[in-house]
Predict the structure.
Amino acid sequence: MSKLFVVATPIGNLSDITYRAVETLKSVDLIVCEDTRVTKILLDHYQISKPLFVINAQNESRKIPELIEKIKSGLNCVFVSDAGTPSISDPGTRVVNAAIKNGIEVIGIPGPSAVTLALSISGLPTDSFVFEGFLPQKKGRRKKLNELSAEERTIVIYESTYRIEKLLNELNEFMPDRQIVVARELTKKFEELWRGTASEILNGFDKKIIKGEFVIVIAPQDFKM
Ligand code: SAM
């Protein structure tokens, strides 16, 4: 039976992709992606031309069984998300689950992920950490922040432009003394890191430039830089 390759792609800089990922993208029959416009930018950069098959939250219940049939019929397929490692705060898990249930071999091609990159340059303890992905936007958000205020490991959170300032204000309320690293637009033109407590970071923020994609890494309670 054919295989499903789960391939990590860049989180910004298009050069951040492994040789093996490019070779795999070039060698398969079909590339499964979230959004053809995003994936085509990467494929054009590496001069790869392959049929694309879109699976997203809106169509997955119909498209996943179709994909499984294609793989069973002999097509080797790659699954990519818009950026970084599939299944990490991204689609992928359902496709991988369906493949496993159907006895299809799943092969991962590793590469960038914002969580590991932010941790690796944070300078905060990484021997043990908890990855929260995106916090709930409304219901349950304060409860989650309250729970996290008792967390003893390093915490990693993903946040968007729209809520970064709100999140820093909440962190100032729930964990005012913790050391925090805010990483913006990693690997991209406007990459920037802020370090300090939530209030120190808020004071250093130029409101005009709080745009982009963010990872927030929060140190354990007693950690001092
Ligand atoms: N699968 C991706 C990964 O492996 O990191 C995560 C996808 S998730 C939909 C998108 C979120 O990841 C963004 O809102 C941001 O929190 C984080 N992210 C992705 N790329 C980033 C980057 N270049 N710099 C900072 N954060 C990033």
The two ends are 52 Å apart (CA to CA). Strands lie at 3-7, 30-33, 52-54, 77-79, 105-109, 129-134, 154-160, 180-184, 192-196, 213-218.
